[in-house]
Every structure is written in C-alpha cells, then in structure tokens.
C-alpha cells in the first residue's frame, strides 16, 4: 500500500529532522567552541541525506497511487500535505539548488564581514548575484505551482499567502501607522514629561532572572516535561515538539528584555508542544508556517505579556523573584516604550510593521525586476523617510544591509513577521469576543481559557489548512488589519 | 578509485555517528523527561541507517579493489582497518541480528525489573535464551574470523586479545590477589587502629565541587575548547573527539567520589581528544578498543589521581575550592580505601580484578557450554567464596544478576576492565623508567611529560595496531601482571 510507504518514509525523515533539530540547538547552547567544524560537516551530511530521502523520485508515484487507496480522513488530508511538501521540495533542479546553496553561503559570509565595515559597494555585486538567482528560483517555482513569482516564494513559508490579499491589508496598516506612529511618540513624550519614568536600573543576578523566566513560562503554559530553557547568544525556539529548546540571553542590568524574550520564545514553544502528536511523523503534523508561528510568539509576548492586565498579576511575581517593588505606573512605560529607529529587530510593536512593509514592497520590486540592486539604497532611503522620517543614505549597514534574509536568498519571508502581529491581534479579539473575562483572568494569572482556545483553533490543527483558511476558521473572518489597529490605538493612542 | 569511495563513505558514517553520539549525550544530560520516546525512535532509525550504510555489500568490493590501488602508508593501514571493521560488522546474518536485538532488549528490561526483586528463578529462562544466542553468535563469528569462539567475541571489543594470552596473566594476578587482598585489608585495619581516620564529612556545594572538578580536569590536560563537563545519573564519557562530553554525579556529603569520577572520565576524554584528527573519518582514527580506553581512564584515576604525589599538589587546590584543610594523612586512607564487597562497580583497585576474573572464567564456560545457566548461581558462589570469602547464594541480585552485560548479551567485554588496569600500571612503569622525575613533577601539578608520553605511544596511534601490539610497542614488552602487582604492593602492601 502506497500510503503505508509514505507513512514509513515519514518516520525516517522525522528521525533525521529530530537529529538536525537537536544538533542545531546543542550547537548554540552546549557545544564546545572547537566542535563547530565537525558539527557543520555532520549537519551538512545529515541535511543531504534528508533532502535525498525526501525528494526521491519514487515518492511522486507513491503519492499518486495513494490517491486511489481507501484512506481515512486523517490520511486523506495528510496525503494532500505530503504532496504540497514534495512539490515545494522538488520544484528546483538539483543543479540549481547546489549553485544557490554555495552562492548563498558565500554571500552570507561576505555580508557578515562587509556589514561591519558598512561597505555597500563591495557587497553590491554579491547581492546582485543573489537577486538574479532568486528571480530564476521564483520563475521556476511559479511555473510548477502555477502562481505569481513572488507568491511562489512566499508559498514556502506560508502556504496560501498571496500578495493580492496581503497588499491591501498592509496598505491599510501603513496608512494608519504613518500618522499613528508620530502620535504615539508625542503621547509618550507628554506622559513622560508629566510623570518622569522611574528607571528600572538595578543588578539582577542571572539565576534570579532565570527563575523569573521559568515562573512566567510555566504560568503561560510551557510544559517542562517536554522542553527547557537555556542560554544562547541569539535567542531561539528549537528542538522537537516532545523536547522544545528555548533560549534567552541575560544582561544583569536589564531584566525586561530577557523576560520579554522568554515570553516570545515560550509562545513559539507552546505551538510546538501542542501540535497534534498523532500526526508527528507527517508533514501534516507540523506548525502551519512562519506567519502563524510568529502569531503564537507575538500572542504571548505582545497580546498577553505587554497587556496591562498581565502586569497586574506579574508584578508580584517579579517582586518575589527579583525583590523589586514596582507599580504598574513604573513598569508600563517601559513595557510600552515606543521609539523611532533604523533597526527592525530593535523596533517596538508600533513601528515594527513599517520596517516590514518597506521590505515587503522593495523585495517584490527586486523579484519582479522593476527595481535593481544598484538603486536599492535610494529606494530604501526614500521609503524610510516616508514611513519613519529617517535617512539611511550614508549608512547602508543600517539600511539595506541590516538583515541576513536577502544575503541568504530568503525573499518572501519578511511579511510573515507583520502578518503574525496582525493574526495575533485578530486571535485575541476573537477570543475576547467569546470570552469576555479574558482580561480579568489574565490579571489573576489564569491562562487556561486562552490556551484552550488556541489549542482548539490553532495548535491542534497542524498543517490541515492553508494559512489564510486557518485564520479565517479560527477567528470567523479573513485577515483584517483593523484588529491590530484597534489594539495599537487602545494601547498607544491614549494620553 | 575504490579507496576514494571508502573515504567518502567514511565521511557519511562519521556524520551519523556524530549525530548518535551527541543525541546520546544530550539524552542523559539535557533532554526533557518527556522527550525519551521520540529520541529512542530517532536514534533507532539513525542506527539502522548507519548499520545499513556501513554494511552495504558493495563495500566488500571496494575494499578488495582498493588493495590493488596505489595507496600511501596511511591509506594502506586505513584499508586494513576498514576491512577488519567491515568483517566484524557483517559476519552475522541480518535475520540473526534482528532476533538478537529484540531478545536483548526484552532481557534487559526483564533484568531491570527482576534484579530489584532479587528474582533469579523468573530471570533464568531469559538468560538461558541469551546464552544460547551468544553461543550461536560466537560460532558464527569464529567461523568467519577463524578464531576460537570466545576470542571471536572479545575481538569486537579488543582486537587481538586471545584467551590463551590473557588467562596466564590473569592467573598470575589471581594467585597474587587471593593472598594479597586479605593482607591489604589487615594492613588497613592496623593503620586505622593506630591513627583513626579523620572523617571527610562536610557539606560541599555542587558549584564548588564542579569548580574543583574543572580545575583538576584542566590540570591533567582536558581541553575545554573540545569538551565539557556536565551532570548525569550515570557518569560517562561521550560525544565526539572534537567535543567530548563527560559527566559526573554530585553528592553534597561526599566530594571524593565525584572528583574521582571526573578524573576517570577525564582520562577517557584525553584519549578521545588526542586521537589522530587527520584519520577522524576512518575506522583507523578511532580509539583502539575497550581495554586500551579503560587503561587511559584508569591511568588518570588510579596511576595519577590516587598517587600520593598527586595529592601533594591536589590538597591545596581542594583547600582553595572547598575551603577544607586536610593533610596527606587525612586524605590518603580515603583515597586508598580497600573493602571486600559483593558489587564490582563499588570495588577498589585491589579487589576489582577478582570480580572481573570470576566473570571472565564463568563466561568462557557459559559460551563453551561447559557451564549451564541453571548451575550459574552455585558456580558464582563457589568462586566468590574462593576469591573474596563472600557468599551470594541467597542473594542472586548481587551475584550473577548484578551486571547488565550478560542480560545485554555482551560476553567477552568483562576482561577489558582488568586488562585496562594492568595496561595502565605497565604504561606508568614504562614512563617512569624513561622519566625518573615522574612523581616529583606530578607533585607539582605538571602533567606535560606524562601526557606527551601517552600522546606519542597511545593516543596518536588510533587503531593502527592490535591491542597487544599497541601495548608491547608502547611499553617495550608484552602485557605482564607484574607491573600492576608491584603497583598494588607499593600502594597497599606497606603498613
Ligand atoms: Zn519569533
Ligand atoms: Zn571507564
């Protein structure tokens, strides 16, 4: 039986993915510094085995043959996802993948070096090479998937996402934010003038910060029998659903950034831990995609973790763990701090979407050929000026060279960040509508109802639906920017 | 070119072995408790891939063809070891290996359960099944390798070891120890009567014990850029040569056992870290075998770490880390404590070999069929009585049920422990002969010369020579019990 063969293949691929996930997390957390070269060799060899086994030509026949077998409902939707997965994995010729992989590695290395030197001129030819490969890639994906080229790239990260649907949503948000960001900054300035902020300065021992993080993770639902928290230079959520590894990074002078990082990664972890285990060895059992994943981390970090109700409950926990006694009026200005800046990863929830929309717009132009790399610094600067009133013309390191995505040939990924923020707000609104006690429960540290809602509507669905379908089914309507806009108005629009 | 194919295969196998080694170490140190089932599935699948790839039939042709190729010296000895490895791996039919694996897993599970209940009667049929499979296995290995059956089993662990060579060495040691163990105990008793021991009791915080362990590991040569120390329930040395993971287990009431454990595992780690890296992806680049490996751990733990000269240097380090001020006369009675006991793993260096020789003798009889499992408790008891003056007839859990080796079908492994102890003493004697300053250097915390000697004579040789050849080349003569006997007499035979 062909479905049986796919099922067995799923177990083999899961073993290799398990190994890669744990080796990856281990590398960032526990590996000896001298172990890196052999680790890279081992992971490259395992990734090669995984790719070869997952893209073997006979799998196409198994998928076709399984269509005619007597399958139950789970198997039928699993089969559709096997096919989607296989098609996306095999739509590029091996020769192209090799060429792209080596060019991408070279361009990433170059980027690391030249970004530090703020040397756009030397980096430009490498990025031109990458963009030309990405155009090739997009054309090939588009022809196999019967999609527009940029949609075919997004399809890797968020199945079902289409620029034609996203652009109007982003436009509405952009129009709002161009006015709202300066307003929010002015409101913040007035409030700080009226009541100067109490600095959160102090020395917070790492073991105390860790205890605080563990307490918060546990409270929002992290399952410590299926995961752990450790330290790494770049925080991440890795591992496997039965053993999710999240990390943070501590500064003894600033507990809030590590704590918010822990909540963010714990949000990713909750999704992984609560995926449908019975489908664990099928593509169907995976998280839906990057945007939905980010919606889960932002749900915990922004919708819950920066909610004033949350801090009513959290402040006594902070006092217990760190020994500091703050009021809501002390902490909220820091939790809701807004700042106009050049760097996407440092941005707050008001300005972050403008960084993403800028990239979303520019990368579509780059992929389509309407924009050339040579003209990118000017195009970036013009948008940066329009959206945030800042210039990067003399500072490409903090302009078009600031992210690893483009040097790494990951075009079509950026929208996921802001789609995640929009989805998180829409999910919270849908939950609050059916559960009016939402805020009061959270102010008492009860997260059961909100987790049940997410478990039912998001986590347990795995990859059953496309990204837009999943959100529409969970929230009762298509993705709409108004929920996020209302969320921002409520949190940042009041003096 | 066929050697080239073997070389490429070596890289692939190394990647899978790397994954298995790190996943194994991670499981014991950092895995979430609920992650075990998926981890076991993943490791079983990877081990299956490794076995299939390492035993593929075409490899035999590559090995044969490579014999006629123009190879350099390294390649030629690598090829011989590729052949030895392949032959040992493929000399059992797949059907047999599967049958044995499943029966072994069942018998190990049963053993865990029944040992706790001290229930020999229920365990006996399972062990009979295992022994019958081991007889089959030994016969098959013997016929392929043209060796005696028991030698064919030992060949897996220590290439070149033959019962005909080992038995006289063990007999000499046994004859000595049967008299010497009671003498050493009497000497200890008199000394304790004359000068009652100062108890080493205190509360030693785990982070201080860890700092002490790290200081000692570093001093004896452990390279922290290629390895680390963590905690696990059963101490081990795992990982890969570029990232060796050693573990210990702490009791706040007893710093000495954790410290000695750290030194033991650090001895294993030194061997792994100093293997010839240029051969890392060939079988030739591996440690020679279990006995030689144990000789390296026992060298550090017993020859160095229990040497009074070592403690002249170590006591101030202990004082610095733990804040306790002991004299040599306080600490040495604990470091050299001898005790007659039923349990091999708890035994000291005087009585330990008698536990091993008992097993070595009995397992040869079991493999040859001269002894049946039904008669094992009486046979065990008779030897226990003769060698150590203890009875286990009413206590099979601490008699023939005490080790996992037999339930796990690992016959031919036990001699490695005592061979390691003999080799360590012989290596120390050889080193001291060419380096008379040995003890005075160690009393000053200088381990460079002794490590250089071992690097040259043992570590850098990888699997170039058979076990007996390696020892003869390193020490100038065949394995002889007299070095270990002289070592014991010096350390335990003087009032
Ligand atoms: Zn995230
Ligand atoms: Zn050992």
TrEMBL record, chains A, B:
Cofactor: how and how many bound: Binds 1 zinc ion per subunit.
Parts forming coiled coils: none
KW Disulfide bond (keyword) present: no
Protein EC: 3.4.17.19
Cofactor dependence: Zn(2+)
Keyword Zinc among UniProt keywords: yes
GO MF entries: metal ion binding; metallocarboxypeptidase activity
Record-linked SUPFAM superfamilies: Metalloproteases ('zincins'), catalytic domain (SSF55486)
Gene Ontology annotations of biological process type: proteolysis
Residues engaged in binding Zn(2+): 264, 268, 294
Record: active site: 265 (proton donor/acceptor)
Catalytic function, reaction form: Release of a C-terminal amino acid with broad specificity, except for -Pro
Function: Broad specificity carboxypetidase that releases amino acids sequentially from the C-terminus, including neutral, aromatic, polar and basic residues.
Name of the molecule in the record: Metal-dependent carboxypeptidase
Organism whose genome encodes this protein: Mesorhizobium denitrificans
